[in-house]
Design brief:
Layout (H helix, E strand, L loop, with lengths): L1 H9 L3 H6 L7 H11 L8 H7 L8 E2 L2 E2 L1
Antiparallel strand pairs: 1-2
């Protein structure tokens, strides 16, 4: 029943269709990514989105220790 709802609701959505072309991203994860990002225009540049999504590793140094 959930698959039928998803197909009816989002089959014509271009963003969902594009996300599903990423290997490993299907119906569920495409919808999850869309919900997480919301409006892409709220990120001023791609680096901000990368950081928000946790795709950019950061190193914090303090007192000789790195995290």
């Amino acid at each position: 029943m959930l698959d039928q709802w998803f197909t009816r609701k989002f089959q014509s959505d271009q963003q969902i269709t594009r996300l599903k072309t990423i290997p490993g991203v299907g119906k569920f994860f495409s919808l999850l990514i869309m919900a997480e990002i919301d409006n892409i225009d709220r990120f001023s540049k791609p680096a901000k989105l990368h950081s928000y999504a946790g795709l950019v590793p950061t190193i914090h140094s303090r007192g000789g220790r790195e995290y």
